[in-house]
Amino acid sequence: MKTLLLKKDEVRRLIGMTEVIGAVEEAYRAFNSDQVEQPDYIGIELPSPRGEIDFKLGYYKANEVISMKASSGGFIDNPTAHGVPNGMATIFLFDARSGALVCVMDGSLILGLRTGASGAVSVKALARKDARKVTSVETGNQARMQIRAINEIMQIEEIHAWDNNRDTLFKYKTDIESEYGIPVIVANSKKEAVEQADILITTTRGKGSLVEADWVKTGTHIVAIGTDQRGKQELDPEIFRNAKIVVDSIAQCAEKGETWHPLNKNIIAKDDIHGEIGEVLLGRKPGRESDDEITIFDSTGMAIQDNTTASKIYQNAIANNVGTFFQFFE
Amino acid sequence: MKTLLLKKDEVRRLIGMTEVIGAVEEAYRAFNSDQVEQPDYIGIELPSPRGEIDFKLGYYKANEVISMKASSGGFIDNPTAHGVPNGMATIFLFDARSGALVCVMDGSLILGLRTGASGAVSVKALARKDARKVTSVETGNQARMQIRAINEIMQIEEIHAWDNNRDTLFKYKTDIESEYGIPVIVANSKKEAVEQADILITTTRGKGSLVEADWVKTGTHIVAIGTDQRGKQELDPEIFRNAKIVVDSIAQCAEKGETWHPLNKNIIAKDDIHGEIGEVLLGRKPGRESDDEITIFDSTGMAIQDNTTASKIYQNAIANNVGTFFQFFE
Lengths: 330, 330
Known about the structure:
The structure is a homodimer. Chain A is about 35% helix and about 25% strand. By secondary structure, chain A is of the alpha/beta class. The first copy, chain A, folds into 2 domains: about 1-110 and about 305-325, ornithine cyclodeaminase, domain 1, CATH 3.30.1780.10; about 115-300, Rossmann fold (3-Layer(aba) Sandwich). Chains A, B: This is Ornithine cyclodeaminase. Chains A, B: It holds the Pfam family OCD_Mu_crystall.
């Protein structure tokens, strides 16, 4: 059995954002085509100042790959105490035809990439065709990744940005303008930024103040990224009342996504969720139907996105002779 | 982050049975000392002629190691179709202080070794001090492993062996006699073999006929290895009625071990289980109290056994400069 080992730098060189967007789109379609098994994840929570380590398993029947992602986060003393980042990730790929471990790759880049790509996939399916203005509420790494991905699939004319932290905000402006040549307008308030949006992207840690319902103009597409566990929240649940709500997984979003909040407050019922993004991509449910709709994409993240993205990286590595083979047994 | 890679041959050279017995004993003690977290395992079942792949997670607080074992089994076409065994295993060790992946080792030998060792640990705690005759009901690989382990901790005078398959049985006799110099008496019937036992080891696939209650003489210690899932069975549940029942994990054994059968038939109640082997090893509960008792050790196997065994192998590798370091990121 030969196992391919891929380092972080190799992973970086082996895949571009366009391919990640394709892989995530494939993941969503597969999820709604009975091609996916994703058991509940398992993990260990460690006492502070450590965080948690989680194991997420996904099986994609069409490509016969089983992926296991081990990811840690919240080990705040790591850089000083152990000389490693406060979160790390490794992805293990198994050939589902034999059970063999075919690849071990560093997974630290994949979460950011596939989450960025998920926003872009939703923009293709749900944003107005004439959308040009993007608003970033909070401006950390994932906000940049969203821009990187959306910039691959449409022309962004200007970005309105808001962040509680002025340093982060101005660094975001400098970086985005130099990297993509898209003008970034620093908003005086979150309200001002939101009011400008054709596409509104929220990537907050989800514990700050919310985006309020009456700031959101008709026709806006909202990409709600930050909320992936109970207790986090980014949006006034009133926004959901008359919006078209599309999620990655109804089971996950109703349980721990942004959608949990309006459900919990009885602002919407489960039946008011329009559907899963895979259903829209497969043409089973309509995407945006008018320029006046407010559309919301609630993303909690799924193991199958790691699976298809890591599989693409693995295929590219094999095709380009990148990586190191290791034989665990003869 | 540097990750140590260990091949099967290196694993084989890095640990002896005595150390595995020590590691398993440590695992049992740890399990009953609030030092262990073992979430439910997750897995994927594949359609025939493929089998399943399981992921078992264990955290040992005292040594701050998190282990994840990926193991596959039942891929019956593997040798011909893919040139790999029908079951494979890999163990991943994470440093719980940082979340870093510190070791990836082939795990194919560890299940056999630690399961063999578990029988020996139970013999130390529960068999009569004057026990000399061991009976093997079925004579496959795990039956040999049990002998290898028990032979480390006591003097076996003779082995009585029975197997439905005469070829397997005679090969077992030849191998055991040449390897350990212990005479193996081929029994004419299972009954005849069982009646001879001071220590009775059952390692059947658990779907054949059972060891009957009136064959088991007083004072016998039974090591019940084969039953680790619902549907398997090796022993007439009547054997449990007046026996001292010791298990690796009450939760697991009551759910899917040999102990499930007498519980299900109301031959015993849960309170009739004497305790977990760790409690006996820690001196919290007595082991054998008289030469007349029939003792049963029901073992379903626990992730923490993989954890302590693999940790010992990892420590030995570091101490002896064995293995290959791979740096997944700088």
